[in-house]
Design a protein that fits this description.
alpha+beta; four-stranded antiparallel sheet; 138 residues; 3 helices
């Protein structure tokens, strides 16, 4: 991962062109199975971006949500829109993105885990290429 930069920023700190590039990357990774509603779920939280030079080649986001359980409000993180550009897969970028997202979730959030299965492109998921691969969730 020489020449690679990992950047972590809130949605509000990303420029319009960065958000556009990340969205196009994720849409391409999901081969058309990622729409505007899916992208909306990835906004409003922290984004992990993998850059090679000035180009985004990986993305993932975690958005804080509040769950009510037994009269108690719990903070949790939904991991969304995790993808690596097709020609940059199998280089460890997906692993780095997930490690950073997990670190964020384990920080100030009460539940300490993702509230649902992550929306992960099957080619970036741990074990991708093995039987079963990743599952998509909406």
């Amino acid at each position: 991962m020489t020449g690679t930069t990992i950047t972590i920023r809130h949605t509000s700190a990303l420029s319009g062109p960065e958000l556009d590039a990340a969205r196009l990357l994720v849409e391409a990774a999901f081969d058309g199975d990622f729409g505007a509603d899916d992208w909306e779920h990835a906004l409003g939280g922290m984004h992990v971006l993998v850059f090679e030079g000035h180009e985004i080649v990986g993305h993932g986001a975690v958005v804080q949500r509040r769950l009510l359980h037994a009269g108690r409000a719990l903070r949790c993180g939904y991991i969304e829109a995790v993808a690596v550009r097709a020609d940059r897969r199998r280089r460890g970028y997906g692993t780095v993105i997930m490690e950073e997202l997990e670190r964020i979730v384990r920080g100030p959030m009460t539940s300490g885990r993702s509230a649902r299965r992550p929306r992960v492109s099957s080619s970036t998921a741990p074990g991708a290429g093995k039987s079963g691969g990743a599952r998509h969730s909406r």
